[in-house]
Specification:
By secondary structure, the chain is an alpha+beta fold. The chain contains 16 helices and 18 strands. Among the domains are: about 160 residues, 3-Layer(bba) Sandwich (FAD/NAD(P)-binding domain), CATH 3.50.50.60; about 130 residues, Alpha-glycerophosphate oxidase, cap domain (Helicase, Ruva Protein, domain 3), CATH 1.10.8.870. The longest helix is centred in the last third of the chain and has 20 residues. About 5% of the residues have low confidence.
């Protein structure tokens, strides 16, 4: 099933219109369509272009949330961690975490151990139906010597040892989100990227759909829908303005920045993710990823418009300072010029509204200003009491729990009167079980991916693609690797690599597939979310042009337009780097 962008269907009535193409909106569309609702999703940029592509690359329970007694959030997250991993075994890996414990650690070592034990207990069902490759081992204590052997760069002063536990690596969040999008499309949902919702269609106090403007053509549409779900994440309150709807909660936007660097301390052999906290209370997560280190996140409140989001030199220095504070005295300190690239997203956190009587409590107001301790749970708002019936908004939540949020939202929708004669089936009676359904491209539910990956590498040998490229394609696309191979068989020129730099395995056939099957409409869509090259650091001008030369003709661009768009994309990427990159002396 392709992400075809057929605007003629927008004249048809829908049961549900979803605003926002991040992980929450995509999961709502998948859940609703799977249960038989005529569903349309409208995203003003590209699928997953916002916060959903700027994660820590982890599907996790949130062990640190235990400090704030968010037990329900942790339990839900651990349950969903299992479901996501079993549904997409080719796109995830189980990863050992090391949590060092020093004499001065806060919380102290004994309490850290209790937290790790509770974390494991809350994930009691983690291994149910799991193949060997996806099983979660029990946590254990590591001696001081074992911690220093596993993480040679860690500060040994006062080190008592550490705790080892496991979470799941979301290897390519952009690709996993697209797999969910294509699953939704396969169940009948119509998904539109580059389609901005500009207002609401109303019948008195009832919302009857939305107005939208095509960002590619400028054409406006009226989309009729019995119900509307606002899943715009950090833009939630801005989307609501035309409706006049309100909530009893306020949205607190927290900026999360991550750095991509060479391996910390120069130790490329480190395979464990390190969760370390400094003496000043800040924590840092250092994850080995694609032969580099992925470090972060920041967690700072931001007052500016979410469209103005950018990493800053201060963000970079904060992360580097935190990781440096965890390093051994003889380890090489990280510097700003070590940073290969940054990712930045916004967490849409929920806090009591200052204008609501319930929000007058000083403790609540203090919590509202503290993004670190704010809840990562989700909230569903029914705006009927604010003069906007059949309109719901989803606030908060996180990548890992997107499916659970979607189930709660669709259950709520089906229990309402909004859909009239539309199918109103609970998940258990609809024949659709999102908690047991593999994502698009998955080799199978709850199966070890390795045999299938080995088969893919063997099958593609006659195509002139080296084994690293064949494995790359199988991991990214799952069963869809056959489509990439078929493109190369029909057009051997599509076997050409987009980049000749080491570690870059994308080929031209992926560009064609990204447009024809995955709804890519711009060079940024391709570079950052259909291919992998845009996530590995700066993309060279010649690499951008290589992609544009393949994509341009498929979009109807002539030679002049190809040159223009390639230059413009290069300039956009350079400008983004200038917000944080140190100025050369």
């Amino acid at each position: 099933m392709t992400l075809a962008r057929d605007v003629t269907c927008l004249s048809e009535p829908f049961d549900l219109a979803v605003i926002g193409g991040g992980i929450t909106g995509i999961q709502v569309a998948r859940e609703a369509a799977g249960r038989g609702l005529r569903t349309v999703l409208l995203e003003r940029n590209d699928f997953g272009a916002g916060t959903s592509a700027a994660t820590s690359k982890l599907i996790h329970g949130g062990i640190r949330y235990l400090e704030n007694r968010q037990f329900q959030v942790v339990r839900e997250s651990l349950r969903e961690r299992r479901i996501l991993a079993l549904g997409a075994p080719h796109l995830v890996e189980q990863r050992r975490f090391v949590m060092p414990a020093w004499r001065w650690s806060t919380p102290p070592t004994a309490l850290l151990g209790a937290g790790v034990g509770l974390y494991s207990l809350l994930g009691f069902d983690s291994n149910r139906s799991a193949p060997d490759s996806l099983r979660i081992p029990l946590p254990r204590w590591l001696s001081r010597r074992q911690v220093l052997s596993a993480v040679p760069w860690i500060d040994p002063d006062g080190l008592q040892g550490g705790f080892a536990y496991h979470d799941t690596l979301n290897v390519h969040p952009e690709r996993l989100l697209l797999a969910y999008a294509r699953s939704a499309a396969a169940d009948g949902a119509q998904l539109f990227n580059h389609m901005e919702v500009t207002g609401f269609i109303r019948d008195g106090s009832t919302v009857r759909g939305v107005t939208a403007r095509d960002g590619l053509t400028g054409i406006s549409y009226e989309v009729s829908a019995a119900a509307v779900v606002n899943a715009a994440g950090p833009w939630l309150d801005l989307v609501l303005r035309p409706s006049g709807a309100a909530t009893k909660m306020s949205l607190l936007r927290s900026k999360g920045v991550h750095l991509l660097t060479p391996p910390v301390g120069g130790h490329s052999q480190v395979t464990d993710t390190v969760f370390a906290r400094t003496r000043n209370g800040r924590h840092v997560i250092v994850t080995p990823w694609q032969h580099m280190s992925f470090i972060g996140p920041t967690d700072t409140a931001m007052a500016q418009h979410p469209d103005d989001l950018a990493a800053s030199p201060e963000d970079v220095e904060q992360i580097l300072g935190t990781v440096n504070d965890t390093m051994a005295p003889n380890a090489r300190r990280m510097r700003a010029d070590d940073v290969i690239d940054t990712t930045v997203g916004i967490r849409p956190l929920l806090v009591p509204d200052a204008g609501d009587p319930e929000g007058d409590d000083p403790d609540s107001q203090e919590a509202a200003a503290d993004t670190y301790t704010a809840s990562r749970g989700h909230e569903i708002y029914d705006h009927s009491s604010h003069g906007a019936g059949n309109l719901w908004s989803i606030g908060g939540g996180k990548w890992t729990t997107g499916r659970a949020t979607a189930v709660a939202m669709v259950d709520r929708l089906l229990a309402s009167s909004a859909l009239g004669a539309a199918p109103q089936l609970p998940m258990s009676d609809s024949g659709f079980r999102s908690d047991r359904a593999p994502v698009w491209g998955a080799f199978d539910w709850a199966k070890d991916a390795e045999p299938f990956l080995r088969e893919a590498v063997q099958i593609g040998a006659e195509l002139g693609l080296d084994p690293a490229v064949r494995l790359h394609l199988a991991r990214l696309y799952g069963t869809d690797y056959h489509r990439i191979f078929d493109l190369v068989r029909d057009r051997p020129d599509l076997a050409a690599r987009v980049s000749m730099r080491a570690g870059r395995h994308d080929i031209s056939a992926q560009v064609v597939h990204g447009i024809d099957a995955e709804g890519a409409r711009t060079l940024a869509d391709l570079l950052d979310r259909r291919l992998v090259i845009g996530t590995l650091g700066p993309v060279l001008a010649e690499e951008i042009r290589a992609v544009a030369l393949v994509a341009g003709p498929l979009w109807g661009w002539d030679a002049a337009r190809i040159d223009h768009e390639a230059v413009r994309e290069d300039e956009r990427r350079r400008a983004r780097r200038m917000t944080w990159q140190p100025v050369p002396a």
